[in-house]
Amino acid sequence: MKFDTKVVRAGIKPDPTTGAIVPPMYQTATYVLPEVGRDLGFDYTRSANPTRQLMEENLAAIEGGKYGAAFASGMASVDSCMKLLKSGDHVVCSDDVYGGVSRHFDNILVNYGLSFTYVDSTDPANVEGAIKPETRMIWIETPTNPLLKITDLYAVGKIAKKHNLFYGVDSTFATPVYLRPLEYGADMVVHSTTKYISGHNQLIGGIVITNREDIFEEMRYVQKTIGAVPSPFDCWLTLLGVKTLHLRMEKHSQNGQIVAQFLENHPKVARVTYPGLESHLQHTIAKEQMSGYTGMISFELTGGIQAGKKLMNNVQLCSLAESLGAVETMITHPATMTHVDVPREEREARGLTDGLVRISVGIEDPEDIISDLKQALEKA
Ligand SMILES: Cc1ncc(COP(=O)(O)O)c(C=O)c1O
To answer: In the structure, what pLDDT confidence band is assigned to residue 4 with cuts at 50, 70 and 90?
Structure first.
């Protein structure tokens, strides 16, 4: 099956009893056993559920992986990957990860004996340089949230292999439409399905996709044992949302490029970061590794934080909101919203200034998005 066909069809069959083209939702906690010691493939929804299984198979096929394990959020998916580790293990991690990820690593997982070194993974030598005898995993986010840094996944994959490390990639921003990290040597790919994959701001969810049976077994065990699994309804909604993923991404990318160019040429804008712009520091690797650049842009105004706040307070069509990757254009202030828990010095060292604005360009008409930004920029 070609990619676009997989998005719509992979794993989906008409309901055998009614012919319903949309798979029914199995909103059930448990399953009646025909006899002691024998079930019909399902025994309790924390362990497995037919609607969840369908979604896991569909997303795994789209990502080009054998196995998918769904969780109740992107964060629960990241956490589940960390369950592959033991106390004393060390992780080398991209330095510009989503603030919720670094909050989890630095404030929770360190209490369980894990340690983390953050490096600018745009240079693979930094990743290799941070490896210690106790390192067990490399964790890469690409493009990063919010600075849209791109890591050369193939180069880092070679390092992971050489040092026999787990290699995890958070590919939430890129989506399998534009990047499939398993093809570059990743052992597991994580998505917050809250974002582009479900696409309509309708749910919170996540998934881990892998070709490795041992990793999948562990993810299944974590699902069953800890239970941070999505509801059947959220899985069903994700299955509906994902059917248009390829079409939405095309429009997000077209609009993203138009808005990034508009911002780059605006006198009040000091700096724009968008992988589709030639000015992006990793534009070359982005071009090689990704087949599109999404709707994610970050930028700073010449007037700094005050101007940025005025812009965000004056948008009318764009929504001032956490999250990204949905059909609506959303504007976010990372320093007070998504990355508020990253200490200020660390934020500044990373280039995540108080004046940084992140925009998730939606699929509205780009003229409307630009005229909204124009009027808000006039007030900034
Ligand atoms: C790159 C990335 N990974 C993971 C997450 C966490 O996902 P969720 O909000 O679904 O827990 C986010 C959330 O913004 C994210 O941007």
So the answer is: very high
